[in-house]
Write a structure and sequence with these properties.
Elements lengths: L3 H22 L15 E4 L2 E4 L4 E7 L2 E6 L5 H10 L7 E2 L4 E4 L5 H38 L5 H34 L2
Helix pairs in contact: 1-3, 1-4, 3-4
Keywords: Cytoplasm, Protein biosynthesis
GO cellular component, one term: cytoplasm
Main location: cytoplasm
Length: about 180
């Protein structure tokens, strides 16, 4: 019989890994990906709206993003939002589409990005470890209340530890891949 606490803990650990992966995707690694614009909000008729809901975002080349708004009147607003963002890229508009040329990363910028990625990965690992602690505390409480035996508690704590190791390894693999992507010139 599987303990509901275990499945809940595993579900939360999976979510943590997904969050780390999303954080990594929004970091600029010298390569153009539409996900770079995910966090940028555009004022559209007074409502902050994500760019991908106002336009088609594509990456026709490795260092170029093309934003093609469905409503041409929103073009200046998209430009403003990109300029205000922390991307550090100046948009070039021809009245129909906006082109974002992604500049080559300097070695210092790459090193900074690696630090940021490592910090995000560590935050993810800490979150996974916190989930482990919460699960172990809940198991101790269940054992104290006589809901499970001491042996059962130990066995379940071992399962929780296996889950923790598995998801921390996943985060480490994501980190290694992102680091490699950043450092590739």
């Amino acid at each position: 019989m599987a303990n509901p606490l275990l499945s809940e803990t595993e579900k939360n650990m999976k979510k943590t890994v997904e969050v780390v992966n999303k954080e990594f995707a929004s970091l600029r690694a010298g390569r153009a990906t539409p996900s770079l614009l995910d966090k940028i909000m555009v004022q559209y008729y007074g409502t902050p709206t994500p760019i991908n809901q106002l336009a088609n975002v594509s990456a026709p080349e490795a260092r170029l993003l093309v934003i093609q708004p469905w409503d041409k009147t929103v073009l200046p607003e998209i430009e403003k939002a990109i300029l205000k963002s922390d991307l550090g890229i100046t948009p070039a508009s021809d009245g129909n589409v906006i082109r974002l040329a992604i500049p080559q990363l300097t070695q210092e910028r790459r090193a900074e990005l690696v630090k940021v990625v490592k910090k995000k990965a560590e935050e993810g690992r800490v979150a996974v470890r916190n989930l482990r602690r919460d699960a172990n505390d809940a198991l101790k409480t269940q054992q104290k209340n006589g809901e499970i035996s001491e042996d059962e508690q130990r066995r379940l704590q071992d399962e929780v530890q296996k889950l923790t190791d598995k998801y921390i390894k996943e985060i480490d693999n994501l980190l290694a891949a992102k680091e490699k992507e950043i450092m590739t010139v």
